[in-house]
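Checklist before submission:
- one chain only
- standard amino acids only
- sequence pasted in full

Submission:
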Amino acid sequence: MKVILSGDIYIVILEMGENLIESIRKFASEHDFCGLLVGIGALKNPKIAYFDLKEKKYLEMNLTGEYELTSLIGNIGRLENGDIVSHMHVTLGDREGKILGGHLLNAEVAVTVELFCMRTRCFIRKRDEGLRLNLIHK
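Returned file contents:
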């Protein structure tokens, strides 16, 4: 992982083989970061999910192979206990040009991932027991 501070924006460059989620948490911890992130690149064996509102749970999809990361958008905040929490959605393109999308749970970097991270005041996610989700509280 390489981190470049360009004005008020952190540019985070991930390399082949790095775990995307672990790298984002490491970046947030090392830079005391909360805020918005956007990115592009390529992922290998991503795990994405769709939140089923009726069942109040994520339906996970384990994808196999390499995918273009055509878009990543998300945020990094904290839980009430201070733990770092990220919430990211992705669109992924396969070799046939088909697009898949959803909540990103895990992925390995296939070639590179380029993230642009904009700091905000830190926000807290609190458990909503009705939905069984950690939602932004303050």
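Reviewer check: The chain has one domain: 2-136.
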